[in-house]
């Protein structure tokens, strides 16, 4: 099995290198997020200046570790702005990193933790055109991949020919196009997306989906996407903190014991083992760390040293949850 690495994917979107670890900015660009214990990570340092400083520190640590794939979104508060400022201030060469962002959600929390609504989903052509301009103003010159944020069948985006035409136009200018998935129907959504063509050419170059030891229902569809030539990116490999030592829920006890046994076998943390499992998927190109602190990133980085084997694969078989139950639990997680 090819050993995972932290090397940059650029310019390999559309190809299939060994799995690499990337960094997602969902927990770095805004003061509130649904990860377990996110409030502990930000503490009282939730001002824009404090969040920028923390984001830069994690980005610097990621770069030192060899990570070259960075993923953000319009709805990640100031995620795009922080990433763009960091790239320019550190004079990172554009051909040395791969930068991905997403459109389709608008951040509405106004930097508040207890906002009534943190983001609003809208996959219309008008939102695409507006958010593309906003993204380009923050990441212009660096952006490699632009993704539909959480495409679902009920959002209608896979049937909107005007949106497809606009995405095809952006693709023709050199930006790769992808989609991200969410919910228990990830596999069905992806199957529909794989057939989507504009002017006889496949629209999507990449797919980003939730896969982790608790939610594996999309893996057959993701393998099919890989074989079709799409870059496959794994998000939420730690299940929003549920696959870390922070998850002390009584209902998770049996699974926690299995994970701790596996972590003991590799002399690693639970989070590193969960990420190593994701990196071991033969169809995955990038696995995103969602680290909010340097300490979390360093723990996550230990995943690349774990030599995943058949014994480990056998031990994770009993960890998966029913997809509907998994997504219901995720929907009930509190922004903090």
UniProtKB/TrEMBL annotation:
Output the superkingdom of the source species.
Bacteria
One Pfam short name: Aldo_ket_red
InterPro entries recorded: AKR2_Oxidoreductase, NAD(P)_OxRdtase_dom_sf, NADP_OxRdtase_dom
Query: What Gene3D superfamilies would the database entry show?
Result: NADP-dependent oxidoreductase domain (3.20.20.100)
Query: Where in the numbering of this chain does the NADP-dependent oxidoreductase domain appear?
Result: 49-316
Q: What is this protein called?
A: Aldo/keto reductase
The species this protein was found in = Lamprobacter modestohalophilus
């Amino acid at each position: 099995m090819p050993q995972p690495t932290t090397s940059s994917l650029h310019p390999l979107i559309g190809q299939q290198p060994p799995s690499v670890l990337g960094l997602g900015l969902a927990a770095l660009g805004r003061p509130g997020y649904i990860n377990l214990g996110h409030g502990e990570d930000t503490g009282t340092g939730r001002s824009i200046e404090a969040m920028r400083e923390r984001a830069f520190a994690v980005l610097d640590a990621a770069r030192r570790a060899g990570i070259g794939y960075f993923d953000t979104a319009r709805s990640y508060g100031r995620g795009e702005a922080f990433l763009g400022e960091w790239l320019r201030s550190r004079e990172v060469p554009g051909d040395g990193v791969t930068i991905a962002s997403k459109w389709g959600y608008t951040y509405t929390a106004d930097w508040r933790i207890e906002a009534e609504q943190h983001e609003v989903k809208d996959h219309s052509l008008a939102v695409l055109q507006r958010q593309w301009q906003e993204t380009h103003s923050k990441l212009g010159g660096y952006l490699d991949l632009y993704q539909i944020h959480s495409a679902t069948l009920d959002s209608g985006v896979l049937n909107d020919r005007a949106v497809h035409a606009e995405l095809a136009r952006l693709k023709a200018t050199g930006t790769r196009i992808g989609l991200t998935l969410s919910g228990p129907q990830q596999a069905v959504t992806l199957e529909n997306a794989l057939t989507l063509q504009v002017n006889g050419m496949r629209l999507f170059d990449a797919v980003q989906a939730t896969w982790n030891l608790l939610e594996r229902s999309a893996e057959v569809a993701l393998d099919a996407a890989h074989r079709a030539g799409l870059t496959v990116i794994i998000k939420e490999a730690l299940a929003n903190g549920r696959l870390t030592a922070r998850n002390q829920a009584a209902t998770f006890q049996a699974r926690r014991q299995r994970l701790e046994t596996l972590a003991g076998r590799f002399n690693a943390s639970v989070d590193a083992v969960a990420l190593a499992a994701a990196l071991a998927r033969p169809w995955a190109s990038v696995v995103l760390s969602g680290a909010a602190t340097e300490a979390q990133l360093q723990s996550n980085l230990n995943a690349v040293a774990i030599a995943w084997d058949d014994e480990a694969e056998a031990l994770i078989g009993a960890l998966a949850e029913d997809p509907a139950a998994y997504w219901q639990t995720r929907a009930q997680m509190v922004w903090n």
